[in-house]
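Let's sit down with a protein and look at its sequence and fold side by side. We need material for that, and I hope you will provide a protein of your own picking. Once you have written the record down, we can walk along the chain together.

***
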Amino acid sequence: MQLSTRLSAVAELAIGARRLADIGTDHAYVPIYLALYKNLDRALAMDINPGPLQRAQEHIRQYHLEDRIQTRLSDGAAKLRPGEADTAVIAGMGGALTIRILTEGQKNLESVETLVLQPQSEVEDVRRFLHRQGYCILRENMVKDEGKYYPMMLVRRGAQEMWTDAEYRYGRHLIREKNAVLREYLQKEEQTYRKIFAGLEGKTGDHIARRRQELTEMLEQIGAAERSLGM
């Protein structure tokens, strides 16, 4: 089977998993791929909605993996039982929802050793949350798929020193590894913010001043990341 660029990168971070919980599975493409090609022993494809689970079941049957991949109706990790998974994937949903799933499913995820997270938004908030909760971000990747940018991370429990504001916003590992997609993303972000800043010229008022300050801080973080990337 052929995965999208985004899902292929997510699956790559999950290689090595033997028992996978794919939370918010949709089509179950990631566990199917890992079971077919990467020695995944068994998986749970979990979703809050019956529709996606029905599609997942159809795809699982298509690849004759009914004995290795089970579907389960679940709000986040609520129906995950202890010891069922060593790795959990939470991909393709907003950062706030990712944080909610991790918070509400804390007990259910206690026996999970590794998390693969791909929040669609509020990525900085997710990184800060993970550090507050005693998680260590081990690896990061960022890919571009159909014109959109997707950062993702491999996470385990463990102490980690605080990052800089730029690192929380754009990813310490992405910056240090000089990720090419991040480089492109930063250039686009800088152009966008400078255009917005230029549009405020000649305007006055407290809200304009606050917006200028916000944009200045964003541009400073972009600059810090770009300098680390050697741009």
User: Anything to note?
Assistant: The chain has a mean pLDDT of 96. Strands lie at 19-23, 42-47, 69-73, 87-93, 114-119, 135-145, 148-157.
